[in-house]
Predict the structure.
Amino acid sequence: MLKEINVAPPLLLDTESARLVTEWYWKSFEDILRFEMVDSEDSNVRQDFCQTLIDIRNRHRNVVPTMAQAVMDLHGRIGFNHNDTNTSSDSISLKLAENVTYFLDRFYMSRISIRMLINTHTLYFGKNPAVGHGFGGAIDDKADIGQVVNAAYDDARMLCESNYMDAPELDFVVHNTLSHGQPIQMVYVPTHLYHILFELVKNAMRATMEQPGLDLSSIPPVRILACQGNEDVTVRISDQGGGIPQRKIDQVFGYMYTTAPRPADERDLSGQSHMAGYGYGLPISRLYSRYFHGNLELHSVEGFGTDATVYLKYLSSEAEECLPVYNSRVKQHYNAPVMCNDWTQNNSNNRRHFTTINFRKR
């Protein structure tokens, strides 16, 4: 993790918030090094190690909003604008945005893995071990998809009502092709799935409630379909919130993009949820879905609404961790030049997706 941070975009690392996050990781690294040469059979050592992990987890509780603040500070510093079509001025900003997204995808995925390890260890070896009854550390071998959907909806509804004084109803359908009429259960980490679904339902509610000309007497519901197949468990969240233009679909997964104003108190790191504003909800939700080789995709009809589809691997044999590997190519990625446009339309969308790559012998 520290090696990844050391080669991250300098403009990002130069922000006050990013420096604070870096200090947290160095402190945690020093805390872990204390146990490198200790007697692991000593019960006091094991207890001390477990408490140290808990302290590290608490120290890093606000890493995501703090790093999001760093991105906001960077955004304000360079004045990046996704809608800018002046290619002579945006090439450097686009490269920086790509590097920031590349770094944060790897950074947050590593963080998910580290927290997974810490949670599993502390649940197994803490004062109240969470083993048995279907749990193996943070993993539930009978995670009920319907229960997680309802929990995510209830919490998102409460947040929506506090912001808009009302909220869309839930239209929830479960389709289990393997056991008709039965709930969908699978081996998964319920907290990961909750994070994904809460973010998607919250976004769907916000889009619906902010739809121009909305009739409050007939608010369109948020429709959720959970389906179990032979290989995948799929959850689709559908809204009638007006949709997203096709050219912005990829942009919403970038950390330097948000359609909402910043929260009233940008420096509030208390953990209180906001309807929107930081710009990290969707990209981190996609990382959670990809952690066990799933995915998150958006399909939108501008003028009508958006479908967000979460794909999860039903077969645990295929749900291996997907983790970034640090090697020499990481640094090369940051130093790679901006690729020239090789299609007739001279715009950023084509440049990012259709390029000629020169593979040099090493």
Summary: The beta strands are 131-132, 135-136, 139-144, 170-176, 185-188, 222-228, 232-238, 295-301, 305-313. The CA atoms of residues 126 and 211 lie 48 Å apart.
